[in-house]
């Protein structure tokens, strides 16, 4: 990832039919970065992508590309290309001609077209498929053609709007790794939209978590997972136990009816906060040895671990454990200070 900012969004406001969809959004995207917009349906991810692609203009705010204001620059004049969820390939053209399309519009020589198309088909592992009709391709192969077609003009930024959404899970996982490889080998910026948190964590240098037209947190996948800024992010990224708590003083928090040492500070004394504990961070021990004790309500085998729901101190806790307890068993729960994440209450965050 480079240090240079390639795209900058400043105080972007978008309305559809008088409804606010983006609420003064600010974002810098770096050269060579793989950045993902992640959030629930309707939070404004695609709208932000459309602003960058030039398909819509903001009502207020500015869009910069390499330092130049480009608010009104039409899409075809931007060094940006888009891959959509629906492949939008030309059904009457073969693979070669689909990829060559943009180059033919630019009236490039036959020799250059051939070279560039071959180079792109090699990049997406489709060498040898030149003459195939797009009907003779699988969903994954069609999406590779769409990616080759979007990259053939050598854009500086590729926008990808849920490009793997129509593929089955196994193929989607393969394509995630492929996309990351393609982005790294080209060394260009990818801006990716998804509502799938695992996809975002797998591929991105930076994840932008969005909710209701606003950015909740920007960070590396590790930051976002380990240090979610609020309970929304914690809940959206992975699974979480979110418990009401009160901060007594630095490094001392009360929740679930007892005091815990934690590693967080900087909250007001007696401030009400959300305490977030990941299911894998609760250690199951004999009842007498636990910080808390609870009764197993249900247990499901998940392959790598068991997922248990445990009733303790008025809450249902999700716990991942490698030991198969039985429903009705009493267990002890241990939570280490560094695994207790303190967050401002959502409405105040
Ligand atoms: N062309 C449009 N006209 C009117 N409202 C729109 C239009 N496009 C999007 N919206 C609305 O704007 C809001 C944000 O939509 P957007 O497509 O940006 O969200 P998203 O996060 O990409 O959602 P999804 O994951 O479902 O694609 C939604 O409430 C949506 O219904």
From TrEMBL:
SMART domains: AAA (SM00382). Its EC number is 7.6.2.11. One of its GO terms (molecular function) is ABC-type putrescine transporter activity. PROSITE patterns: ABC_TRANSPORTER_1, ABC_TRANSPORTER_2. It is an enzyme of class 7 (translocase). It comes from the Bacteria. Residues 7-237 form the ABC transporter domain. It catalyses: ATP + H2O + polyamine-[polyamine-binding protein]Side 1 = ADP + phosphate + polyamineSide 2 + [polyamine-binding protein]Side 1. Gene3D superfamilies: 2.40.50.100, P-loop containing nucleotide triphosphate hydrolases. Keywords: ATP-binding, Cell membrane, Membrane, Nucleotide-binding, Translocase, Transport. Belongs to the ABC transporter superfamily. Spermidine/putrescine importer (TC 3.A.1.11.1) family. NCBIfam families: MMSYN1_0197, potA. Part of the ABC transporter complex PotABCD involved in spermidine/putrescine import. Responsible for energy coupling to the transport system. The complex is composed of two ATP-binding proteins (PotA), two transmembrane proteins (PotB and PotC) and a solute-binding protein (PotD). This is Spermidine/putrescine import ATP-binding protein PotA. The gene is potA.
């Amino acid at each position: 990832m480079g240090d240079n900012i390639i795209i900058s969004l400043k105080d972007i406001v978008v309305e559809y039919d008088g409804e606010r969809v983006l609420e003064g959004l600010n974002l810098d995207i770096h050269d060579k970065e793989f950045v993902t917009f992640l959030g629930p349906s309707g939070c404004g991810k695609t709208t932000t992508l459309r602003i960058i692609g030039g398909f819509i203009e903001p009502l207020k705010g500015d869009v910069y590309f390499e330092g130049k204001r480009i608010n009104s620059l039409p899409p075809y004049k931007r060094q940006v290309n888009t891959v959509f969820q629906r492949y939008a390939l030309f059904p009457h053209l073969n693979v070669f001609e689909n990829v060559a399309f943009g180059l033919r519009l630019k009236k490039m020589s036959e020799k250059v077209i051939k070279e560039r198309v071959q180079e792109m088909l090699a990049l997406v592992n489709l060498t040898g498929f030149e003459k195939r009709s797009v009907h003779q391709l699988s969903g994954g192969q069609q999406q590779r053609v769409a990616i080759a077609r979007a990259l053939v003009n050598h854009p500086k930024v590729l926008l990808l709007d849920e490009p793997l959404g129509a593929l089955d899970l196994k193929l989607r996982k393969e394509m995630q790794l492929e996309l990351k490889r393609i982005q790294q080998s080209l060394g260009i910026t990818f801006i990716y939209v998804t509502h799938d948190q695992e996809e975002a964590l797998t591929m991105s240098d930076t994840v932008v978590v969005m909710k209701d037209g606003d950015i909740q947190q920007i960070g590396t996948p590790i930051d976002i997972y380990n240090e979610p800024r609020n309970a929304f992010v914690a809940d959206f990224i992975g699974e979480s136990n979110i418990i009401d708590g009160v901060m007594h003083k630095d490094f001392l928090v009360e929740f679930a009816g007892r005091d815990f040492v934690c590693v967080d500070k900087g909250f007001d004394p007696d401030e009400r906060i959300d305490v977030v504990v990941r299911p894998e961070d609760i250690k199951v021990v004999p009842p007498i040895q636990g910080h808390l004790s609870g009764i197993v309500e249900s247990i499901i085998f998940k392959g790598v671990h068991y997922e248990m729901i445990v009733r303790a101190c008025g809450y249902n806790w999700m716990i991942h454990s490698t030991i198969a307890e039985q429903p009705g068993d009493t267990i002890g729960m241990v939570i280490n200070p560094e695994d207790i994440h303190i967050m401002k209450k959502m409405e105040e965050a």
